[in-house]
Amino acid sequence: MTVTRFLPNNGDNGQPSNTTTDCKPLTANGFSQECTTPCVTRVIIPNHQAARLATKMESGQSSSNNIEVVVVVVVVAVVVVVVVVVVELVVVVVVVVVVVVVVVVVVVVVVVVVVVVIVVAVAVVIVVIVAVVVVDLVVVVEVVEEVVAVVVVVVVVVVVVVVVVVVVVVVVVVVVVVVVVIVVVVVVIVAGVVFSWQGR
Prior knowledge:
2 domains, 2 strands, 76% helix, mainly alpha, single chain
């Protein structure tokens, strides 16, 4: 097998050139040359030189392919690392938000329970004091006055209890609304972060 190449002749050294010079006869290394106008050298390369040339070309192409594969592998590795880091950050944010929400709910429940206990204790003390006063009034005043006093005391106690219950209900409602608002805001923030990362 021979490889035929057509090159412009540059005088004695046989290198490519834009100039046209006279061709030389058969050279010492076995190359045969023919001239046309402009002067062109047809070089017939022996089989072993053609094989070496083909090997060099294949090795160069193989090196280029290896570089492309390395670049693709590096890019894929960087993308995978970025995705893993982003997922870990999202998971950490979600866990932190859930923990904060749970802590807030527990604190709110404890506060509500303490407030209810205090209100009930105050109501019991008020009822005891009113009962003592009623007993004293019953002993001191006449029957009619005692009845009126009892009715007044009962009305006062009822009003006090109603006010306490209303206050407790209002406090509980306010606490529940605050907790719901906090949970909704946290869920919206987490959802926004997750959707934004998915969009990217």
